[in-house]
Amino acid sequence: MEEAQNRRFWLIELIAYWEGRLTTRHLREFFGISRQLASSEIGHYRKAYPHNLLEYQRSDGAHLPAPDFQRHHISDDVAEYLSWMSGLQASLLPSQSPVYLPHFILPHPPRNITPEVIRPLVRALRESRRVEVDYGSIGNPNREGRIIVPHTFVNTGPRWHLRAWCEKNGDYRDFVLSRFHGQPEMLGKSPHTADGDEKWNTEITLIFEPDSRLNAEKKAVLEHDYGMTNGQLHLTTRAPLANYLLQEMRVNTKMLDGRPEAQQLVLVNFDDVQGWLF
Q: How far apart, in whole angstroms, are the C-alpha atoms of residue 232 and residue 252?
């Protein structure tokens, strides 16, 4: 199979499996091809894998995955779909490409996230719909039903979250995708969109410096490593994501590591941002 068609089959499976409906628009917008060619590629896919996609459903305006859909070009890790959706893999290159360079990405353990969970969440997010979910957290491991209104998928490095309005708490909260259970139930429209999430729409800047216990030479290494200006690194993020950024930077604000070589960086404007930290 030629590489171009292989990539199109990959996208066909990715969308059908995780979103539950496939249109020619997905292929046209991602690959910049005509409607006729996109339709033809879907036809080629259905011929190659006749038991994966149902006939075009006029009531849905799309091809739907068959109940016994089998993956041939994608994995069962939702991070593959979410990374594509957020643009992180928008320029994937085949290994035969002349501009390809050998590389390796440190794997994270796959989370237990099913298409039955993702499909209603994606639809609810796109249509500003309420959705009833079964969610278990560390604070409440017994799980409980709640109604949320999703507005943004968030990648925090090792896992994906969903930012959503929570009717139970009367506030916008972060939900870990792998902690949803069962199949969310679609409900009606909601006025609680991302525009109303004041915390989400608040940006704060974290200011880092090399640990003061390091000598000048070691500080210089870190300043060059992070491209610091005047010995400081300024990173701006959405306020609810500040803790996740600190975790990614491996900066502990509660206590210093006994070895400055391990701590490396410190947060110097803690007093200004502590109200946003857990």
A: 17
Task: Give me the pLDDT at residue 105, please.
Answer: 66
Instruction: Please report the sign of the dihedral spanned by the C-alpha atoms of residue 91, residue 228, residue 160, residue 25.
Output: negative
- Of 217, 137, 210, nearest in space to 173 by CA: 137
Q: Tell me which long-range contacts 128-131 makes (C-beta under 8 A, separation of at least 24).
A: 128/189, 128/190, 128/191, 128/192, 128/193, 129/186, 129/187, 129/188, 129/189, 129/190, 130/167, 130/187, 130/188, 130/189, 130/190, 131/184, 131/185, 131/186, 131/187
Percent helix, strand and coil across the chain, each to the nearest 5: 35, 25, 40
Mean pLDDT of the chain: 88
Dist. CA 149–CA 124, nearest whole Å? 7
Per-residue pLDDT tens for 142-169?
Answer: 777 899 999 999 988 878 999 999 999 9
pLDDT at 103 over 80: no
Q: Give residue 218's Cα distance to chain centre.
A: 35
pLDDT digits (tens, 9 = 90+) for 33-52: 999 999 999 999 999 999 99
Tell me the β-bridge partners of 203: 238
Nearest alpha carbon to residue 263 among 272, 274, 255: 255
pTM, rounded to two decimals: 0.81
